[in-house]
Amino acid sequence: MSEPRWLTDEEQRTWRDFSAAVGMLRAHLETQLQQDAGMPHTYYELLVVLSEAPGQVMRMSDLAIATRSSRSRLSHAIARMEANGWVRREACETDKRGAFAHLTQAGLEALEAAAPGHVEAVRSSLFDPLTPEQIRQLGEISATIIDQLTPRCAAAAAEELERLERDTAGT
Amino acid sequence: MSEPRWLTDEEQRTWRDFSAAVGMLRAHLETQLQQDAGMPHTYYELLVVLSEAPGQVMRMSDLAIATRSSRSRLSHAIARMEANGWVRREACETDKRGAFAHLTQAGLEALEAAAPGHVEAVRSSLFDPLTPEQIRQLGEISATIIDQLTPRCAAAAAEELERLERDTAGT
DNA sequence: TACCCCTAGTTGAGCACTCAACTAAACTCC
DNA sequence: GGAGTTTAGTTGAGTGCTCAACTAGGGGTA
């Protein structure tokens, strides 16, 4: 175990600013959406993805992947959204294990009511203060981070699987 | 109420990538810290700030401000961290309402055990894939967002206050 | 056909957070 | 110096998350 590669003062400053900026942005958007539309940001994202799906229906698994959510989280979320009347669960005929999440009219209306305020919040807190050049840079940076982390998610899943198998082998 | 300023396709792509990148980064760091050190990222931040304070003691309010946390969140967090033995609450002699949070030896050790893994995770997922130029850009962008959102927090607090007063006036 | 493993989705417990309500001490101002 | 207002911090209920355990159906192989 060698000495870790600590952050330089400069890196530390950047990291703390980035952390703070992201934290403030999240908090700002979360509060705006919660107060004005009565939903957390994750539910908003689910409504957006569902509204763009053909027929406004999606299999639970596909919806989980599209929103980078765990199956469990999605299941809980859809349960609550169904209670709100925004979504309807439907059985899958060809695979009896499966389930569809179907956006309802009320769900679409909730999204349409929430969208303008949310978009305005994103625009005014992120896009307005940045120059076009910075926006381009932010896009590049984000894409790079996604590329860096995507294989790592797969690796983590594989490791998880391996650990599980090792545990099971002992019995 | 005029038509909202919707995002262009380009902006939308940038926003979704940024959202995804931040989400993946958060999830990655949260999981790493939770698995390797048994603490959420917010507790790690509290330990860091406390460890850098003179005497490793801070007033609750100051700690809340330094970590951009609500009083309530901090109070709950410190309660749990005290149960873990990482922190000790101490009374303030000069202001009987006040309380100090004092980092314990065990807390410092928990931080020292957690730090290398966390720093390595930050470095490998954020700093390694970015060029020095991009890191500089990210610092600039973050500072701009902070500047944009800081007055807005104050404004939100003022508005909240005003709302409270208006409600109270009615009684 | 029977067996075994894999995949889809749900469930419940536990944790962190928010919000609103609360206690108690300090300040302010007549 | 006493009443009203602020400030410091806590508390409890409700919500969304994670993790692990579970049900149940699909798919392969002998």
From TrEMBL, chains A, B:
Domain HTH marR-type: 11-147
SUPFAM superfamilies documented for this protein: Winged helix' DNA-binding domain (SSF46785)
Signal peptide: none
Any Pfam family: MarR_2
Gene3D superfamilies (UniProt xref): Winged helix-like DNA-binding domain superfamily/Winged helix DNA-binding domain
Protein name according to UniProt: MarR family transcriptional regulator
